[in-house]
Write a structure and sequence with these properties.
- The chain folds into two domains: about 70 residues, no CATH class; about 260 residues.
- The chain contains 14 helices and six strands.
- The strands form two sheets. Strands 3-4-5-6 form a four-stranded mixed beta sheet, sandwiched between helices. A two-stranded antiparallel ribbon has the order 1-2.
- Helix 7 packs parallel to helix 12.
């Protein structure tokens, strides 16, 4: 569920995720609007159009332009001392199902009806905001406390930023994203540049989501990275699965990985495998997709923190470092209708 989709819900429907300051209003939250914070929205909103504004002396329920709904992206696990960040268009559903699965293991309840969120009657689009989900992180301040004061390891499994942009292009129509039937990839990149999709969590920076909207340098959180394999990698799906398993084993232990793999039931009907993270990226195979050479630098500039993080992650797997990653870019770009090389 994304921020903008809340408007489609009935006014009486509760928010499936957590209420946050809308991105377009965040810049105004200073001076006489310093009260406008995520915590304010969470405390005063109980329906998409019913945020209570009386405390500031202006009684109105028309605050949908101030607060919106976003799915919880972070889960934390006291037994393992790990904070896991999950990001839309970066296998978020798989990682959120994984988080629910680890929580089920900790509870001693391996019933698929319990942990497989999409199969539950209370599923409304936010896997970490329904019953039997692990504890979530609702603010940057809470993230800081867990990491700096309580010694949690913050971790995220990243997706190649260029491949993720391709997935945004073809995979977000359902979420008030781009209509790729009538929009070229070049036009989509231009829309990203002028902020058309600002506030849509599917288009947000991966590191921006993990750091609650803050630039990486400002946030000061030392994330532990895993990363999907670059598209040009030989048998990239198998390599990505290997990396995901290694990521899990290093953070949660081999026993947890073995338990997940021994009993994993795929909740995604599109998957043909019953093994954790055994699926391929649709963005690698979409017919007619393209990121031409002139568009790649523009996408990299839009998601500069993600590029730096992904390159840092790649050095775990390829000591040649970021230059090797950049050299792969021409190998996986294709041709987009309406654009030219």
């Amino acid at each position: 569920m994304l921020l903008g989709a809340v408007g489609a819900l009935a006014a009486s429907s509760p928010c499936p995720g957590r209420y946050v300051v809308r991105e377009e209003r965040r810049a105004d939250a200073h001076g006489d609007k310093a009260w406008l914070t995520d915590a304010w929205c969470a405390a005063r909103c109980d329906t998409p159009a019913g945020c209570r504004f009386e405390a500031e002396g202006e009684a109105t329920s028309k605050t949908s332009d101030l607060c919106g709904c976003a799915c919880t992206a972070h889960a934390y696990f006291p037994e393992h001392k790990v904070v896991l960040c999950t990001v839309a268009k970066a296998s978020s559903s798989a990682w959120r199902q994984f988080a629910r699965r680890v929580h089920a293991i900790e509870r001693g309840d391996l019933s698929v009806d319990g942990w497989c969120g999409t199969k539950r009657k209370d599923f409304r689009g936010c896997l970490l905001d329904q019953s039997l989900a692990p504890a979530g992180v609702g603010s940057f301040e809470q993230l800081q406390r867990l990491v700096h004061d309580e010694g949690y390891t913050p971790a995220v499994f990243l997706r190649d930023p260029i491949e993720r942009a391709l997935s945004m292009y073809t995979g977000t129509m359902h979420a008030q994203g781009v209509d790729y039937h009538n929009t070229s990839f070049a036009q989509f990149v231009a829309q990203l540049e002028w902020g058309k999709y600002k506030g849509n969590e599917h288009m947000a920076s991966q590191m921006g989501v993990c750091n609650f909207g803050r630039p990486a340098k400002e946030a000061g959180i030392a994330w532990r990275f895993g990363a999907s394999a670059p598209s040009a990698t030989l048998d990239a799906p198998a390599e990505t699965k290997r990396r995901a398993h290694r990521f899990v084993a290093e953070l949660f232990g081999e026993q947890t990985l073995a338990s997940v793999n021994a009993n994993w039931t795929q909740c995604d009907a599109r998957s043909t495998s019953d093994e954790f993270f055994a699926f391929d990226s649709q963005a690698r195979h979409e017919a007619g997709l393209a990121a031409t050479g002139d568009l790649v630098p523009r996408v990299r500039a839009l998601y500069a923190d993600d590029v730096r993080a992904y390159e840092a992650a790649e050095r775990q797997y390829d000591p040649a470092g970021p230059d090797a990653v950049r050299a792969l870019v021409p190998l996986f770009v294709q041709t987009v209708p309406g654009s030219s090389r």
